[in-house]
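Blinded run. Sample ID left blank on purpose so nobody reads anything into the name before looking at the predicted structure. Input follows.
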Amino acid sequence: MRNTMKHQLSLLTLCQSNKIRPSFWIQCVFILLFAFALFGPITNLLIWTVAETWYFPHALPSEWGLNIGTKSLILTVMSQAP
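Blinded prediction complete.
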């Protein structure tokens, strides 16, 4: 028990010192990767909601619009009509 306490205490003092602190730029890279992992899929869904046509090699849709959403909304309303 006593040996474990010394080990935890020495690990705590090592972490508090600047010896193992990552550099500022490494921290920035990790924050940017985390933000991309969090907001990337949300952004992709938002782009897909307004994409009319989007072919493979293009980074963004070729045609933008709300025509597909309007068609699906009309079909949904018509299917629910008695």
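Unblinding after everyone has recorded impressions. The chain has three helices and two strands.
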